[in-house]
């Protein structure tokens, strides 16, 4: 433990020195760091997806640097410092884990999540904030992640489907509604009107939302599932490009049948 504290103290000292002596570090504000923090978070996410421990360690360090950086800026303007950040986090963790630090009993991780959301509402009430189960979902989250978080939030207070079969039925219902909208568009045989486009967009959104809900019931993280499919597609498409290059051709010169043939071949590899 002493070595860990020494390492953290060393980091804080380095941050103080950089802030005092480095022109770039001295110029930074919370606003200027924000987009860099988002970038670092995505890099950490990619390292986790790739399963590279050394890269995960590196990216965790970059994220930690940003946390310390924000705390340093906060201490300079008198808002907060790193001790207050850590103390606040410790207090929150203790309060939201009464089954560890109190007398509450739980039998599953689902019960832990339910208690967590209820305790968050108590915190908001105490602080005089607007009480909503969904108020803790950041508005700036990517839509797919936001949908998953919304569904997790409402589940924690009992607003949920009874089983996966019912959710799958909802998926099929939403797909049927999307197909019905497509049939109406085909009947018109004209350019898609703005109203029709908006309606189809709404139906498509319902399909995605219900699919994300089904993924949750099946224990699948939809963001991870989609990213794995993205990587698989990239790998297979690059195989097509390499095949074209090996034949001295540009990929644009390949016919669709040729590309499909290489695509099927890439699956074997």
Topology:
Blueprint: H1 2-21, H2 23-27, H3 30-50, H4 53-76, H5 82-95, H6 98-101, H7 109-127, H8 143-155, H9 164-188, H10 194-217, H11 222-246, H12 256-268
If you had to describe this structure to a student in words, what would you say it looks like?
By secondary structure, the chain is mainly alpha-helical. The two termini are 48 Å apart. 6% of the residues are buried. The mean pLDDT is 91. It folds into three domains: 2-95, MazG-like (Helix Hairpins), CATH 1.10.287; 134-220, Helix Hairpins (Orthogonal Bundle); 224-268. It has helices at 2-21, 23-27, 30-50, 53-76, 82-95, 98-101, 109-127, 143-155, 164-188, 194-217, 222-246, 256-268. α3 packs antiparallel against α4 (53-76), α9 (164-188) packs antiparallel against α10 (194-217) and α11 (222-246) crosses α12. The protein contains twelve helices and no strands.
